Structures are given as C-alpha cells and as structure tokens.
Amino acid sequence: MTNDFLNYDLPFLFDFGPSILQRFAINVLSSCVLPKHVAIILDGNRRWARQCGLPIIEVHKRLVKKLAEAFSWTRYFKIPEITVYIFSIENLKRSREEVYDLMKIYLNLFKKMLHESEFFHENGVRVRFFGNFDLMPPELRSCAEKIELATKNNSRVTINFAFFYTSTDEITFATEKLREDVKQDHLKTSDIDEFLFEKCLFTGDGHCPE
Q: Which one of the record's GO molecular function terms can you name (predicted)?
C-alpha cells in the first residue's frame, strides 16, 4: 500500500457547493413533494473500474467523494433520512487487499466525521450504523460506536450506514430478538405480526425508503 493512499484526504460528508444551475434546480424541485427517506446502494464499482481502466481502489476513493455530494443534496432538499449501503458482509469474499483498502477508506472517513462532530450537532444530524458489529475490525467498530454516541440526541436529520450488512443478517437479527422476547415472556407468539417484525428491523423506528 502506498503512502499516498495512507495519507489520502477524504472530503467531509457535506463538502459540496452547488453551481448556479444546480441552485436553480434545487429551488424548483424544493417546491415538489420530496421523499422522507432516500436509500443509496453503492454497486458496480468493479465493473466501472474495468470499463475505465482504473484501479479499483481509485474508484472507491471517488465514490466517497460522490457520497459527500449526495449528502449535500439531501441537506439542500431537507430530506430527513438517508441510508447508504456501504459494505456488505458478502464483500468479505473479495480479495484481502481490496477489503483492507476499503477498511482504510472508511476508517479515514469515520475519523473525519468524529473530528467534525460539531457540525452534526449544529445541524441536528444523527448517524447510525446498521450491520453485524461483531464482524467489524476493532478500530472501525470503535469509531462507529463513538459517532453514534456523539450524535444520538440529534433529531433533525438521520444518516444510516449499512455497514457489514446483509438483509439476511438483519432478518436473522429481528427473528432472534422476537424469539428472545417470547422466551422471556415479554410477548406471546400470537402478538407477532408483520408490523411488529418491521419494528424489530434496524430501520424500525424510521421512515420506509421511498
């Protein structure tokens, strides 16, 4: 791994200034009915890297810059919740080098978020992480937990990171939670329906993505 990569300076999540034309588009679209929850899946990076003849790590870096732009757009449109699927448990099957590079990128990003925590307080931004924390590298897990703790009382905007996540793992988590509640006599099996199950999902207390 090169020193350039280790010293790579990631943008802050909201470092994006719209052009005059983009500001005009924001003003026009702001008068429309806008979604309350936007979900983004980061997919196709390796295909795009092959098509453009770029190293995959360079594409991952560019994608984080695009995330900063996407978060800024949601801020301008006053969208209260955004979920970004940034790393699947299935991605652990990729090469050791690619996974390691991705972890370095996200560690740098999370550290920058901690450093800029005052911004989150001033703008009422809460950050949450959905996924299997047991699979996260210790330093990344520590950063994620610190970010959640530092922003937990903010309520104007919610940013969800699906990190070390799969839908199968989430369903397993919700099922185990309900099973344990039944075992502890906190509820009966007859109480379980689709609405209760939905409440046990990671996004159970938020809006459904639109």
A: ditrans,polycis-polyprenyl diphosphate synthase [(2E,6E)-farnesyl diphosphate specific] activity
Domains of the chain, by residue range, sit at: 3-165, 168-210
Would you put residue 127 in left (φ > 0), alpha (ψ -120 to 50) or beta? beta
pTM, full prediction: 0.80
**What pLDDT sits at residue 184?**
86
pLDDT tens digit string along 156-207? Answer: 989 999 999 998 998 998 888 898 888 888 888 888 888 888 888 887 776 6
Q: Which residues contact 203 (CB under 8 A, 6 or more apart)?
A: 83, 130, 160, 209
Q: ∠ CA(88), CA(72), CA(87), 5° rounding?
A: 5
Q: How far apart, in whole angstroms, are the C-alpha atoms of residue 174 and residue 135?
A: 18
Q: What angle do CA 159, 164, 166 make, to 5 degrees?
A: 90
Would you state the structure tokens that stand for residue 210, as one six-digit string? 């639109």
Assigned token pair, 56: 């995959």
3-state secondary structure (DSSP) of residue 26: helix
Structure tokens at 200: 């046990």
Residues 105, 140 contacting (CB under 8 angstroms):
no
Q: Within the chain, which residues score under 70 in pLDDT?
A: 1-18, 206-207, 210
